[in-house]
Amino acid sequence: MGSIVWSGLVDGAVFALLALGFNIIFSTTRILNFAQGEFLALGALLSYSLTVDHHLPVPAVLACVVLAMVAMGLVVERLVVLPIRLSGSSYAWIIATIAVAVTAENAMVVPFGRDPVRPPGLVAGNAFTLSGAPESWQTVLIIVAALVIVGLYEAFLAFTIYGRAFRATAHSLDITELMGIDTGLVIKASFVVSAIITGIAGVLVAPVTFADTSMGLRYTISGFVAVIVGGMGSSLGALVGGFLLGLVTAVAAVKISPGWANVIAYAALGLVLLLRPNGIVSRAAVH
Amino acid sequence: MTDGLAVQDLWVSYGSAQVFQGVDLAVPEGLVVLLMGANGAGKTTILRTIMGLKRPASGTVSLRGRDITGWPAHRVVRAGVALVPEGRQVFPEHSVEENLRLGGYSHRRDRAGTRRRMREVFELFPVLEARRRQHAATLSGGEAQMLALGRALMSRPALLLLDEPSLGLSPLLVQQVFEYIREMNRRQRLTVLLVEQAAAAAIGIADHAYVLDAGRIALGGRASEVARDPKVQEVYFGASEKTAEVRS
Amino acid sequence: MAEMRRRLDELRRPSGPQQRAQRALYAAAGVGLVGLLVLPLLQDQLQVNDFLFFFITASMITILVTTALNLCMGYTGLLSIVHTGLFGVGAYATGILATQAHVNTWLSMLLGVVAATSAGVVIAAVSLRARALYFGMITLTFDLIIAGVATNGGRLTGADTGLFGVPQPQLAGNDLGTRGFYYLTLALTVLTLLAVRNLMRSRTGRSFMAIRESADTAAALGIPAYSTQILAFAVSATIAGAAGAVYVTLNGFVTPQSADLSGALILFIGVLLGGTATVIGPVLGIGVIATIQHYMEVTAPNYQQLIFGAVLLAAMMLVPAGIVGTWKRSRLGSLEEPEPPSSPIGNLVEALPAERGPALRLTGIVKRFGGVLALDRVDLEVVTGSIHGLIGPNGSGKSTLVSVATAFLRPDEGSVELFGEPGPRRPHLTARRGMVRVFQSPHIFERLTVLENAMVGLHLESRQRLPASVLRMPSFERDERRLRGLALSRLEEVGLRQIAMRPASVLSHGQKRLLEVARSLGARPRLVILDEPATGLAAHEVLALAALLRRLKRLGLTLLVIEHNVPFVMSVADRVTVLNEGRVLIEGEPALVQASSEVREAYFGTLEAAGE
Fold it and tell me: What is the spatial distance between Cα C30 and Cα C38, in angstroms, rounded to a whole number?
């Protein structure tokens, strides 16, 4: 049982980071980014390529991934925000983000191919054993990293002037502009920060699972379930939703069957949404 | 003229509704100018257009000789204009102090200057200092108004736009607020364009006044003269022979 | 402004190029249809192999699902990410019945459609309970569940590999075959498009579109949002399910991929590229996609999805209105439709019986918001057959009072009486009780024509049923003509009859206000509450509005006018109530109110004194 819980927490940590990524973009733009998982996929695949094909050391790999995420974040922002503004349709956001997701996934096939890959961990070795199975340091790193990143982000929001600007933009674009803050820049920054966080999640999770170009959509859905369950607009909600989803899916996969685990998770999501439309840790009122 | 604010031949519409057609007004440097008019006449829209939150269909807005028409709002702020929006609109989940810091965003690098500005704001509004760590959502209407004013001052504006500051405030508070505005105008040579429906209280502190009626400037001039003009009564009130004719 | 007027003038006189263009389009469509019908017969002459028919059939299946999605999203405004799932339900249900239960294939297909419709009803009923943003998300969840069940269904669904060996339906003892399916699908597609067209030009279709524009306004006109949205979703699911049933019997198999999200992109492209809320849009959109697909299969099969993604993004930026929408906006395409036939109406607005007693009586209304006393023991009495004005400075409580009267708010104390009976408890019941509220910002349905807007107002008057609408039975035609006649007479009342066929979006602000009044009259109100009707109107429009209000009063209606524009109110009202800070300051005839010094002070203050 212990190792099931542990693997659920590890999955959950990744889901939580995805949920955080969703939250960041949602808070400034009110868009749910269907392409969110593609940041993770690129991070995972790029880290494999740089580590195994180009033999770069870990710090260099991280630096490259961050740079790639900055670029990707800016590109995705344009590809999502422009069509929405020009289209004038109220569904523009979902169609645009789905289109970006599909395009990104298929664009990644070109450099990376379709075969699943698995890089070595960022940290080697096993930390401890649970129920007879060894758990690697990588898994510990994932959980710790998720907590640290969420904590850092919350600190950024609470203690820096730029974090305040983020929160202000989330409240009202107009009033924030009146403060002399360029909200267009804030929105671009939110895409970049979200991309970096999600990309790092990809780097973290790649050694633990198989990375391939189709993983983006899978993680988008999981992260999305996590953010809805936990509550939109709340970092704590992202953590709660992520870990909860990870645990439920892990337990269901073993006790019932791996295939049904996801279906159960989705059904549970639907149920949560009906009973608590704002999520479990509800904070932001969603209009 | 090349000082202060000049609005020329402004046409603005919201969708199919023509909000105003060819508005001209001038706010000379260092003066308090009042813009009056019945609701729905477009007073808020003028301020939003000057501020860059709305693009005019045609016409120009210039500040100290510089054409700022169509500039995005954050650029207008950096040019030295601040707007205290209708209904205060403070950031409810930020504290009083954070609201003020956000107001001073455009000068955030000048830490000493920001500290000094905040001290000045607290001197002007002592009650804000007492509540500096409280969330803005917990403030009363009058306190929120003061916070909105203080927040606008933090950006060191040369021109202050105020949209119905008296809204929802008791008469006593309204008096206080207008006294503050007069004080800021005198102390800091702050040019003020004030939009008010409660014209009575406001006219006492104004140097010039304009009357907006159905999208056009109906009257403009020295405040004391405008106040006495019978047309003002008519615009607000329909009390004239003309309306008596229409009724029958 | 002048440009718009000139273009509108052009519309009034059908011009040569526009008519020719439209005729050319119809001709092209006719030729295309005949071509499709005759194609199999010319197979040998044109040297095409069977694969072409298969390809066209598959494209038509996609057109069907896209039409279903368009009905749901484009016309009714419901974002759905489950349409591939509904398609899958139709396919799987048909397949399972035919292979596992050995039911006759035709019957299996029928039952498959029923299964899809049922799934649609359940999904809609559940998803609509969540807030608007989450509706789409819950449909996504359902799609994942459907795909998940298909993947994990073991022997029943064929699990990952899918369901195989589905027999073709039989015709005269033989398999239907490629040509048979071709004609079957062609017939199904044409009939579906016709049915959708008929549906959208009926009371039901108008109610769908009204909900898309504004569910609240639709409710105020008597359209129940929940059940109407479920109906739209159910019809949409039926079409998608039929497509699935044909798909599985045509191919002989179905896999979970057919039900999951991977096909959703094409559907969205089809709807958007073709033009949302148009009948022919899905055909054009899928036509373009199918052509791209055909070429890409030959040249670069691996890049298909990539190209599609890029096409979709480009389409959103370059042709946001879709092919049909862009055409309609162009010079050639903006031909106004001629006025459809209507029954003449005798007297315009039925004379209302003389009422005794006040139309509306509010007594002792108290309303608090948190610690703020918004209304402090307010009394208001509106005499039947009169125009009553309600004025007061900002924040005086006018809107709150009206919201209490129309049941949007419950008073903490006090009572509401409407024509002698206790007031309605819920907002959507007000229309049935004869009280209608015309809001400050016009809530007209921008994408419908002026006439359609007026006809939505007659929703409660009509008794059309869905089957009759789709089949265009005589009962439908009669009712529709009667509604048109009523609607046109309402438009005549407010002076908008000549522009009945224009889209409501081109009206000026004042005209939109008049249209809203016309639409509200449709529900046969006895009391009309107008919320700041003069706001944003030009001077001549204010005069027209005042004249209209006086006309309505002569016809026996009671009017309550809330306004800031005091001169306007004084010119039309019989009596005026002045509110200030939640209390009634004075009530009486306009002259009396105007002369009152208290009112002057509240509004206007001691301006003269201050001026000195």
Answer: 12
User: What residues of chain C lie within 8 A of the CB of A99, using their CB?
Assistant: 265, 268, 309-310, 312-313, 316
Q: What are the b/e assignments for C402-427, b being 16+ CB within 10 Å?
A: bbbbbbebebeebebbbbeeebbeeb
**Sign, Cα dihedral of A77, A80, A83, A85:** negative
Q: Give A56-72 pLDDT, tens digit per residue.
A: 888 899 999 999 999 99
Q: Which residue has the higher pLDDT, C246 or C291?
A: C246
What number of other Cβ atoms are within 10 A of residue C20's Cβ? 11
According to CATH, the topology of domain C358-446+508-611 is Rossmann fold (3.40.50)
- Under a CB-based contact definition with an 8 Å cutoff, are residues C298 and C124 in contact? no
d(CA A152, CA A24): 13
- Give the global pTM: 0.82
Question: Cα distance from C96 to chain B (closest Cα, Å)?
Answer: 54
Q: Which chains touch C (3 or more CB pairs under 8 A)?
A: A, B
Measured distance CA(C606)–CA(C597) in Å, rounded: 10
Model confidence at B234: pLDDT above 80: no
Q: How far apart are CA A32 and CA A223, in angstroms?
A: 11
Report yes or no for ipTM above 0.95: no
Q: Do C313 and A79 touch (CB under 8 A)?
A: yes
- Alpha carbon separation from B43 to B46, C88, C446, C600 (Å, rounded): 5, 57, 27, 21
DSSP secondary structure string for all residues of C543-579:
HHHHHHHHHHHHTT-EEEEE-S-HHHHHHH-SEEEEE
Contact B153, B122 (CB under 8 A): no
DSSP A166-218: HHHHHH-HHHHHHTT--HHHHHHHHHHHHHHHHHHHHHHHTTTS-B-TTHHHH
pLDDT tens digits for range C526-535: 899 998 888 7
Q: Does C134 touch chain A (CB under 8 A)?
A: yes
- Name chain B's partners: 3 or more CB pairs within 8 A: A, C
Parallel, antiparallel or unpaired: strands C358-369 and B58-63:
unpaired
For chain C, where do the domains classified as CATH 3.40.50.300 start and end? 358-446+508-611
* Cα nearest neighbour of A78 on chain C: C313
